[in-house]
Amino acid sequence: MIHCANPKAQYLSYKDEIDSAIQRVLDSGWFVMGNEVIEFEKEFAQFNNVTHAIGVGSGTEALHIALRAMDIGHGDEVITTAHTAVATASAIDLASAKPIFVDIEQDYFTIDPQLIEKAITPRTKAIIPVHIYGQSCDMDAIMDIAIKNNLKVIEDCAQAHGAEYKGKRVGSMGDVGCFSFYPTKNLGAIGDGGAIVTNNDQLGKKIKLIREYGWEERYISSKEGWNSRLDELQAAILRVKLKNLDKDNNLRQQHAKKYNELLKDLPIELPKKRENCTHVYHLFVIKVDKRDRLKEYLGKNGVNTTIQYPVPVHQQKYFQSLCREKTLPITEHVAKNILSLPMYPELEENEIHKVSDVLKDYFSD
Questions:
Q1: What are the CA-CA distances from residue 46 to residues 27, 240, 288 (Å)?
Q2: Exposed, middle or buried: residue 204 (CB in 10 Å: 0-12, 13-18, 19+)?
Q3: Among positive and negative, which fits the CA dihedral 107, 109, 113, 115?
Q4: What pLDDT band is residue 216 in, cutting at 50, 70 and 90?
Q5: DSSP calls for 275-303
Q6: Which of 9, 143, 146, 234 could form an S-S bond across to 193 if both were Cys, CB 3.0 to 4.6 Å?
Q7: What is the pLDDT of residues 101-117, one digit of tens each?
Q8: pTM of the full predicted structure?
Q9: Cis bond leading into 11, ω under 30°?
């Protein structure tokens, strides 16, 4: 079976370095908020061309803390997309704010800037654009709207580590950028983890306080806060992988190029890349009619695929009770027709050919 994602393969690629990093932490005897986190935060900030990176417990917590650091909460509205992991909306809900969903662009699956302005009310405080599948939203248009309407921008970068929008790393354009280090991400830990990046000194300080009980000094809580720390083991592992992230993203891009060459004549819609931007192919997502039938055929023939995401957030039972949007036509259409093919750096070329051959067989029947 060809896996759709394979975090074990990445561990094996860097096994000696990762094992050494883990041993370094164990030998140090310091397991929480030590030198590994400090150094990873420096390196991640430098990688993203920002002044601050703050490690936290997960991508969801990154979004939640960012919202709270901006004093966004009860009675406030946050505009985002329903074509995303539920974590995006859960973080808004966790902050006691209300997610306001708008539809996506047909070509890129990202939030449609033309619809954002129509959704703004006096209660709107922020926009959370989601850089989905490995490429950026239309950040120029989003930032223009935010500046015009005095709104905060929290970039959800969980699926786009290292991607660029017109030469700028995702996460560096809004007020903050939020990352997940879930094991299958382009930069994945061996467990949960997340980070917030920003160029705003005041926000950076506030985020650091919130992620650890509001402590300005140990055991003395002067501000709102709780426990959402990136632990030393995960930071040490992420430091190994961060050094190789651009190389691994390049491998993903090479795999995507091969898929595009092999599949171009089939009746499927291949991923589109935004002009003057880089796509790091966290996922290789195709659109196809009768998707479920194809997924079943691929599975029976040794190719594992996934669907991100089969039920849009605004149609999920819990969020239906929270949101006013009854229909998002493009989001709903996309959810019924998308399929993620195998994509990870260690994918072999012969495996890409096998995926292609199975797809060709399916369409030739």
A1: 27, 15, 40
A2: buried
A3: positive
A4: confident
A5: TTB----SSEEEE-TTHHHHHHHHHHTTB
A6: 234
A7: 999 999 999 999 999 99
A8: 0.97
A9: no
